[in-house]
Amino acid sequence: MSAERDSDRPEPGDVPLVVRSSAGANCSSVGSVVDLLFATAAVSTAVFAAAWAALAREARPEDQDDATQRDNNAPAG
Amino acid sequence: MRLRGETWGAWIRLEHAPLLLAVDHAGLASLAITPPPPRPGPSAPLEVHVAVTSQCSAGCTGCYLDATPGGHSPEKGEIVRRLEGLADAGVFTVAFGGGEPLVRDDLPDLARAARGLGLLPVMTTSGLGLTARRATELRDFAQINVSYDGVGADYAEVRGIDAARHAERAIEALVAAGVRTGANVVLTRATMPRAADTLERAKALGCVDAQLLRYKPRGRAASLEYLSRRLSADQVRRFPALLRAWSARARPMSLRVDCSMIPWFSTDPSLADAARLTRLGIFGCEAGGHLAALSVDGATAPCSFLPPGDGDLHRAHARAPREPCASCPIFAVCKGGCRAVSAFSGDPWAPDPECPKVVAWRGAAAHGRPEPA
Ligand code: SF4
Ligand code: SF4
């Protein structure tokens, strides 16, 4: 998803739009976890719900640590 | 969490789970999250590969960088300046590579510097010479992947050096040190039949994930030998079914595929679903999009397999693909396959010549038959 490629993005209505496992470590090509591709719809739905709940927890100001607040206030990233 | 505003909402990296989320404006509003305004122009990459050295003494036959023992390692201050630039641009992940990053003794400092800038540092290594003490110094990396192309002789088949046991010891040392560790597994024609065993061994060693990689014709691998080492057409055809079986057997270890493998999904209707691939954050060719690379000299490239450039041509290519990609249902994710493979075949903007759909389309066109669906 980028400013030039908005048509690539999924339809709104579900949150989050995209869940990507992000800690992979490869220094050449970019890797993507495929486990959920083979999971049932119920498992995928549960993962999206869990990701949303985790985001909601981190978004609560009282639960934010210093690093979170610093990042939240950082310009463009 | 770390936020980056986009025209459609924001990318958010969670602090307490290894997840990157895309959330639209309505979702952000419902959680009272206010991202910074998006920057003008194309979005910055999500991930940048940072070559911290071009030095390596392993001499792997397929090294895509052509790294040598006489390679060069920029000063720490120079690498930190590059990291600052990436953090300012809104990049989330920096993947250190080389060369062999372990030739640097300041890796812990670089990882800490990246963390301090809000970047998530990860690293790829051959693991050669990684001691238990050294492994404990690398705990600031969010993940380290060790190149592990097969058990015993399979490793030597891919790399031309017999160092499987060294890689296994490195994985064990990292796992023992509490570092989140993965295995990078390059698939070649000779090693693919035993890939299940390789993945089983990676799981037994304690890897949290295994990254499957396509063998690519770049650096020392860009030779005629590539044609006999790449997967056969039959192996490519069987890849989706094998991936499903490997994924089931690998649990709880996760499986990753690299961006260049997405064309191999095209003939399996259950995988060739662009909306689903997008929702699950599965990336095809992101050269010039979500991905960029910084060479050891500091030059920017759309991907570490491609020559320097700012990615404009790649973004233009993604807007105007050729057939059969233009009418392919997964083009939005695949983007026409791997530019490095297409470049090796003579035209960097041609559809990936190893995509089964492209092969079928060209075959039909050559015989004047209607194009296959
Ligand atoms: S036809 Fe093109 S876009 Fe479709 S899978 Fe093949 S290379 Fe990718
Ligand atoms: S050219 Fe594209 S598909 Fe190939 S490795 Fe680079 S980003 Fe991945």
Task: Jot down its keywords.
heterodimer; A: about 80 residues; alpha+beta; 2 strands; flat; disordered C terminus; B: about 375 residues; alpha/beta; nine-stranded mixed beta sheet; three-stranded antiparallel beta sheet; 14 helices; 12 strands; about 35% helix; globular; binds iron/sulfur cluster
Entry summary:
The complex is a heterodimer of chains A (about 80) and B (about 375). Chain A is an alpha+beta fold.
Topology, pairings included?
The complex is a heterodimer of chains A (77) and B (373).
Chain A: E1 18-21, E2 31-33, H1 41-59, H2 66-73
Chain B: E1 2-6, E2 9-13, E3 19-24, H1 25-30, E4 47-51, H2 76-89, E5 93-97, H3 107-116, E6 120-125, H4 132-136, E7 143-147, H5 153-159, H6 164-176, E8 181-187, H7 195-205, E9 209-214, H8 226-229, H9 233-250, E10 254-258, H10 274-279, E11 291-294, E12 300-301, H11 312-319, H12 331-334, H13 339-344, H14 356-366
Parallel strand pairs in B: 4-5, 4-11, 5-6, 6-7, 7-8, 8-9, 9-10
Antiparallel strand pairs in B: 1-2, 2-3, 11-12
Helix pairs in contact in B: 2-3
The structure holds iron/sulfur cluster (2 copies).
One iron/sulfur cluster (SF4) is lined by residues 263, 266, 324-325, 328, 330-331, 334, 336-337, 351-352, 355, 357-358 of chain B.
